[in-house]
Design a protein that fits this description.
Distance between the termini: 38 Å
Bound molecules: 2-phosphoglycolic acid
Structural class: alpha/beta
Family: Belongs to the LysR transcriptional regulatory family.
Number of helices: 6
Protein name: LysR family transcriptional regulator
Strand content: 25-35%
GO molecular function, one term: transcription cis-regulatory region binding
Keywords: DNA-binding, Transcription, Transcription regulation
CATH topology of the largest domain: D-Maltodextrin-Binding Protein, domain 2
């Protein structure tokens, strides 16, 4: 309870999050800052590899990510799902197909995130498990750029479901019904083992765990995601 922290309502909070978390963390921070206007925030949004580098340098109080590095001593708490789905332009033929075998993906032009991306690691792991080799048509360093490339007709991709809300609502992009998808992942909030969290960081951690379901609920799609 925040009341436990009475008197500690100023200070600085340093957060670093992976790219897919930027779709809900700013809203969470908004509510937090309204409650505690004297707290200064620094929010870094970056990919998995750069986040790990920040961890090694002990640059932040808290981290939000999907694949906690196994070689680091971290306090971890899983708090929400972060599924990865196959995305295409809604007018493409695949958007109407049902229950496609994963092998269909290797016929498609694929748009991939940069090396160092956690999304990419998860995709490569699944493809190597199923011995799929895909033709990477284009490599792009941001989820937003990938969405634009899909809209521009350059290919298909695999992205966190939470990056897609508006394009799905507008009917511009579609989630493809492909076997083995979604790739089920979680968001974790993490901090370094042995680190004494500041009072402000503890307050934000509690706020995150209590409130994030509401904000992520807004990102959940009205269009059902194929599940099996
Ligand atoms: P990424 O991480 O931006 O490094 O792909 C996102 C995620 O792992 O969900």
């Amino acid at each position: 309870k925040v009341a436990d922290f009475k008197g500690a309502k100023e200070g600085k909070l340093r957060l670093a999050v992976v790219t897919t978390a930027k779709y809900f963390v700013p809203q969470l921070l908004g509510a937090f800052c309204q409650q505690y206007p004297a707290i200064d925030i620094s929010l870094q949004v970056t990919n998995h590899q750069k986040l790990k580098r920040r961890m090694l340098e002990n640059e932040d109080d808290l981290y939000i990510l999907s694949q906690p590095p196994e070689d680091l001593d971290l306090h971890l708490q899983a708090f929400l799902d972060n599924p990865l789905v196959v995305v295409a332009r809604s007018d493409c033929e695949l958007a109407r197909k049902k229950n496609m075998p994963i092998e269909y993906l290797d016929r498609e032009k694929f748009i991939m995130r940069e090396p160092g991306s956690g999304t990419r690691q998860a995709i490569e792991k699944l493809f190597s498990k199923h011995k799929i080799s895909i033709e990477v048509r284009l490599e792009l360093g941001s989820n937003e750029a990938i969405k634009q490339a899909i809209l521009g007709g350059l290919g298909i991709s695999i992205l966190s479901q939470h990056t897609l809300r508006y394009e799905l609502e507008r009917g511009e992009l579609a989630i493809l019904d492909v076997q083995k998808f979604p790739i089920q992942r979680h968001w974790y909030v993490a901090y370094l083992g042995g680190k004494q969290l500041s009072v402000v960081a503890q307050m934000f951690l509690q706020h995150l765990l209590a409130k994030s379901p509401e904000y992520v609920e807004c990102l959940n799609l009205k269009i059902p995601v194929p599940q099996r």
